[in-house]
Amino acid sequence: MEEMLKVENLSIAFRTDEGLIEPVQGVSFSVKEGKTLGIVGESGSGKSISTKALMRLLPGTAILGDDTKMTYRAKSGEIINIEKLALNSRKTRDLRGGEIGMIFQEPMASFSPVYTVGNQMIEAIRLHRDMNKKEAREYAIEMLNKVGISNPSQRIDQYAHEMSGGMRQRAMIALTLSAGPQLLIADEPTTALDVTIQAQVLELMAGLQRDLGMAMIFITHDLGVIAQIADEVAVMYLGTIVERGPTRDVIRDPKHPYTQGLLEAIPKLDTLTHRLSPVPGDIPSPHARPTGCPFHTRCARKIDGLCDQQTPAEISLGEGRAVTCFLHSSEGRDVA
């Protein structure tokens, strides 16, 4: 299966009053046609910033690394080097929405409060599809119906604040998909929803992906959600990927202590007496990045004199799996 998107050595720095900070360092991943890549990690790990770089939505203070490459294969077959696109070019505008769509965590921040949902959908449809206003309205109603919104011919004339949270998120999905993207980025789209609605939205997105043949990047802090929806997973911590591989393999046999900690923190319904085991401590600020392995300040298995002094390299484990940890390196085994 061919790669639709390949990201190599993605590094992002921001100019601040305190100097340059680098919240993302040397991140690499790829997305295959029709498959879902899950990116998981705590808040502050660099998940959203990494994917916003794909849409060229970073603020003006952001600087991409010199070695950063983001290669995308468009619907036409054209190979686009995203990092080289001018921010206000026609090609960038076509890329946003028409090629790569993005669903945000809080749809109220994406919908304009002064225009109806239908007005905004029609504008997006006409921008990326060859339709007149009447055809675009009919297509918008069809998309609202496809995502499970009742009475779509009436809902289309409502404002976002007139809808419930779950309905707004469905409308946001309809808006994003109406432009016809072949890659969908979902940035924690179920976090603000209750558990029942969350399950419905996840099922909806999985079904739409199958029907439309899209690829997807799904961002979340919850490995339980990743287990339901992703084919492959990349675990991020403090701007780096610490483990990646097929979702089933990573969840059944996690290799990095951080991945193990995230799985231990998931509530287990079959053992209600089992105490939750959160990852101790807090994720450091990019302003005060620790030396050596970024996770060593919270790791119960750290090797003194190694993990706190040297940065581990990524180690291939075969079958598409890799981990960035001295516990699986020759240096770590020699010390142990």
Describe this structure in words.
The model has no long low-confidence stretch (mean pLDDT 90). The protein is globular. The strands form two sheets. The chain has an eight-stranded mixed beta sheet with strand order 7-8-9-3-10-11-13-12, sandwiched between helices. Strands 1, 2, 4, 5 and 6 form a five-stranded antiparallel beta sheet that branches. The chain is 32% helix and 24% strand. The chain has helices spanning 47-54, 90-99, 117-128, 133-146, 152-155, 165-178, 195-212, 223-229, 247-252, 257-264, 330-335; strands at residues 3-16, 19-32, 36-40, 62-64, 69-73, 79-81, 100-103, 183-187, 215-220, 232-237, 240-246, 315-318, 321-323. Helix 3 packs parallel to helix 6 (165-178). Helix 7 (195-212) links the parallel strand 8 and strand 9 (215-220). The chain contains eleven helices and 13 strands. With 336 residues, it is α/β, with parallel strands linked by helices.
User: What proportion strand?
Assistant: 15-25%
**N-to-C series of helices and strands:** EEEHEEEHEHHHHEHEHEEHHEEH
Radius of gyration: 21 Å
Determine the fraction of residues in helical runs and give it as a percent range.
25-40%
Biggest sheet character: 8 strands, mixed
User: Tally of extended strands?
Assistant: 13
How confident overall, as mean pLDDT?
90
List unreliable stretches of 5+ residues. Answer: none
Q: Could you give the distance between the termini?
A: 40 Å
The computed structural class is alpha/beta
Strand order of the largest sheet: 7-8-9-3-10-11-13-12
